[in-house]
Amino acid sequence: MGEAQVSLKHLFRVFTKPEHKDSKLAQIEQHLSDNIMDFLSQHVVTKKTSLEEIEQDFSLPAVPESPEFVSSHAESLLEKLVAHSVNTYSPTFIGHMTSALPYFHLPLSKLLVGLNQNLVKIETSKAFTPLERQVLGMMHNLIYDRDDSFYKEYLHSARHALGAFCSGGTIANITALWVARNKLLGPQPGFSGVARAGLAAAYRHYDIGNLGVICSKRGHYSLSKAVDALGLGREQLLSLPCPAQTLDPEDALREGKRYQEAGNKVLAIVGIGGTTETGHVDPLDELADVAKELGCWFHVDAAWGGATLFSSNNRSKLNGIAKADSVTIDAHKQMYVPMGAGMAIFKDPEDANAVRHHAQYILREGSKDLGATTLEGSRNGMAMMVYSTLHILGRRGYELIIDQNIEKAQSFAAMIDAHVDFALTTTPTLSLLTYRVCPPQVQEALKIASDADKVRLNQKIDRLVVGVQKAQREAGKSFVSRTRLECPNTNSQAITVFRVVLANPLTTKTDLQNILAEQVEIAKGMRIWKELVKLADQVLRTSASV
């Protein structure tokens, strides 16, 4: 093939057309289009490769001096990148909130990249701007169900926004709390507002010691980033214990009153609509009432569980969400859209004006430029992928998938309950659950053990769970994640558990049975299994002799 040349002719070809129809990149594109599962099964290597080994392929800091042929570079990507990527399409990859995607996203993503629209401004996006506004309106309608006249007035209003499209749940949560902060500490006679005067001046003007945000310990780590980025300070994230996995409204009210009586102000209560670790849903209806009593904003982080609203059978699990001032939803989770599609939805179309910005060269006052009310500036047109998926699947299509995910999680929970070597630690509210590998003798011993013995047993179970999870991941046939939780029956002791997310429509009950079988086989081959059984036998004998 020779060497790629540094010439205008060569660069022109790179900008306009492939090297030839049988080039490596063309082959990759064809294989992906024909059967993405087959492509991934052939090119993603399951053998154990350490991160340190992979880092060696990406260790040169200098920019390449000379050009490289596209086909040569594509070969390099297959060997260095694709081979060692994670096969998120696999039906046995059930450890995270990332799943197989509908095939049509592949050609649509090519269209998206080819158009290369920038949603910061109409001059660089045109039709994409009204499309994004419609998508935000669809999500607003899904949550708040306002009448047609409401959307006719606000959907395309230059002076209003029903939400903000962003790269993910973290930016959506920050955006929602940014709006809440600017509204609470807004302009008054003699004060220009926090957006102009800054936080210190706002605290002095409003006679506030600190601003705080209340959530449970199951709240997403992005909330900690939010209070940091907004200048409130991480110590003002009041994350309350939740051994039952949800935020207790009475605890939230008690903490809010205590905080405000100390000269502070609660900025917001954040209810979780599907926690990242267990999939639980906070009592949103009651928390909305608590927020009202405390006089604060009510935000619902439904990045994971928001899609449950598509299901007429299961949407009641999110009762109270329509009382929220703002809601986060991630379309790249249970709406089956590629990464980079988060949304913050506002109940009141006026609220986004609290963060509206203008710049004469790009965001002119009175325009419909989306960048005026979004934290991010330049953004691609990911709303198109959401728009297309909403149309191609429809509400009823989403309902079918969501209902199946929840039913599958319930079936898997029943499998675990029926298996002598496992213990279910949290039952599924949505399509997440947690469990432990735990020999039957150990399960019996935990029922009668002293507090000290329970700690010793749980510590050894933790080691077993960690060992099994690592070995299963490295074997490469299947994957579940792990986390640490406090549960009602562990006396506030945090324990290590397997965490499963059932979102891939391709996952079957046979896949789930095989995952459990593999875990048992791994566990019984580990020394810690024998140590655990021995300790449990000692506890049972001691109890019997008393």
Automatic annotation (TrEMBL):
Q: Which cofactor does it need?
A: pyridoxal 5'-phosphate
Pfam families (alphabetical): Pyridoxal_deC
Highest taxon of source: Bacteria
Q: Which InterPro entries match?
A: Asp_decarboxylase_pyridox, PyrdxlP-dep_de-COase, PyrdxlP-dep_Trfase, PyrdxlP-dep_Trfase_major, PyrdxlP-dep_Trfase_small
Task: Decide whether keyword Lyase is in the record.
Answer: yes
Keyword line: Decarboxylase, Lyase, Pyridoxal phosphate
Q: Which NCBIfam families match?
A: NOD_PanD_pyr (TIGR03799)
What family name appears in the similarity comment? Belongs to the group II decarboxylase family.
Record's protein name? Pyridoxal-dependent aspartate 1-decarboxylase
According to its UniProt entry, this protein's organism is Salinimonas profundi
Q: What is the lineage of its organism?
A: Bacteria, Pseudomonadati, Pseudomonadota, Gammaproteobacteria, Alteromonadales
